[in-house]
Amino acid sequence: QVQLVESGGGLVQPGGSLKLSCIASGFTLDYFTMGWFHQAPGKEREGVSCIRDSDGTQYYVDRVKGRFTISRDNSKNAVYLQMNNLKPEDTGVYYCAVVRPNQSGCHKGEFGSWGQGTQVTVSS
């Protein structure tokens, strides 16, 4: 059974940093493309970053480039999202997700299992 458990969210001031963690179970993470998604209050869930299974290539949505870094530790079956220089518009729930079997892209529709999310609030 696939399970994804996020942690690391919290309240931070603008310009601060947080590191989100996602611990996976029920599958071997290094064989699957993983992603982080953000859902702001009242808005749809959108992709933030993705790391490909095949070669570890990382993708970022433009608004977080240079501020967020996705990484994974296959030995811990975990994926992380380091978030620096946080802005109020980064507020929302962050979800970790894994693609469906035989999928390898970073499009939202390719992701089939999701964590419960972790709340990030950026406010002074």
Provide a descriptive summary of the structure in words.
The structure is a single chain. The chain has 124 residues and is mainly β. The protein has strands spanning 3-7, 10-12, 18-25, 34-39, 45-51, 58-60, 68-73, 78-83, 92-99, 111-114, 118-122. The strands form 2 sheets. Strands 2, 4, 5, 6, 9, 10 and 11 form a 7-stranded mixed sheet that branches. A 4-stranded antiparallel sheet has the order 1-3-8-7, with no helix packed on it. β4 and β5 (45-51) form a beta hairpin. It starts with a strand and ends with a strand.
Strand and helix map with partners:
Blueprint: E1 3-7, E2 10-12, E3 18-25, E4 34-39, E5 45-51, E6 58-60, E7 68-73, E8 78-83, E9 92-99, E10 111-114, E11 118-122
Parallel strand pairs: 2-11
Antiparallel strand pairs: 1-3, 3-8, 4-5, 4-9, 5-6, 7-8, 9-10, 9-11
Q: Key features?
A:
four-stranded antiparallel β-sheet, 0% helix, 124 residues, globular, mainly beta, seven-stranded mixed β-sheet
TL;DR?
The chain is mainly β. The protein contains no helices and eleven strands.
